[in-house]
Design brief:
By secondary structure, the chain is of the alpha+beta class. It is built from seven helices and four strands. It binds ligand FNR. The ligand Cc1cc2c(cc1C)N(C[C@H](O)[C@H](O)[C@H](O)COP(=O)(O)O)c1[nH]c(=O)[nH]c(=O)c1N2 binds next to loops. It comes from Vreelandella neptunia.
Length: 229
């Protein structure tokens, strides 16, 4: 077989798909082991190589080890989680309350990935009407870090049951910086085979074949892909 650098080897391809399929949102399986600085640096490099609109690179990475900051964030989460539980009723609410939805203290490291909404100045290439493209770009950085972490054997849990204004206050963020993702990072005892929400019976993965359309909302049908799914 001819090799060329624009095509991954079979092993490289398998590695990439493995990271994608075996990445998990982790909150219950964290180990206390410290993440070595060079490993954290690799994760942050991976995040920093995400695509961004107009190459604006709107992210900053706030590395949080302080127990007292994490305790404050946990208390904030508990307050928000109480409100969140009340949105469900009866058995569903009980089920919700039984779920563990964060690993703020069990993980050795928390990381807030922020989005600087003014990065790149007022006119960013590609960010005209759709001003949220800076937020989308920052999400790409989160996903890059999440996948790289999986390849390193490190679990990541995204905690969004938080009030963003409270997080901004605790982290001293200026007005134009949005706390996009509050993450918990650490080595794990295991990566579950399926999403924890699926394992606990909260919600299942939808069949891909139900989600790929040519004509669901009346669009012209280009090609039928369903046989391949
Ligand atoms: C933007 C965003 C925000 C959150 C999440 C994800 C994303 C993308 N997820 C994780 C989510 O529940 C999880 O990704 C799905 O259940 C699928 O599981 P896997 O990620 O495949 O393990 C998540 N999980 C959790 O326990 N508490 C949370 O606050 C959040 N918040």
């Amino acid at each position: 077989m001819t090799t060329s650098n624009h095509r991954f080897t079979e092993a490289e391809r398998r590695g990439l798909y493995r990271a994608i399929h075996e990445r998990r949102d982790v909150r219950s399986q964290f180990l206390p082991d410290r993440i070595p600085p060079d490993v954290l640096a690799r994760l942050l490099e991976a995040a920093h190589h995400a695509p961004s609109v107009g190459f604006m690179q709107p992210w900053d990475f706030i590395v949080i080890e302080s127990r007292s900051v994490r305790e404050t964030v946990l208390a904030m989460h508990e307050q928000e989680n109480q409100k969140a539980a009340e949105r469900f009723e009866g058995e569903r609410q009980e089920h919700y309350r039984s779920l563990k939805l964060q690993g703020i203290m069990e993980s050795p490291l928390n990381l807030c990935i922020t989005c600087d909404r003014s990065r790149g100045g007022p006119h960013v290439l590609g960010r005209n009407s759709i001003v949220e493209t800076d937020l989308f770009s920052t999400c790409m950085a989160v996903q890059n870090l999440w996948l790289a972490a999986r390849a390193e054997g490190i679990g990541v849990g995204w905690v969004s049951i938080l009030d963003q204004e409270q997080i901004s206050t605790v982290l001293n963020l200026p007005e134009h910086v949005y706390p996009l993702a509050y993450l918990c990072l650490g080595y794990v005892s295991e990566f579950l085979d399926q999403p924890e929400l699926e394992a606990k019976g909260w919600r299942s993965r939808l069949p891909l074949s139900d989600l790929v359309h040519g004509d669901k909302w009346g669009q012209p049908l280009a090609t039928r892909w369903s046989d391949a799914l």
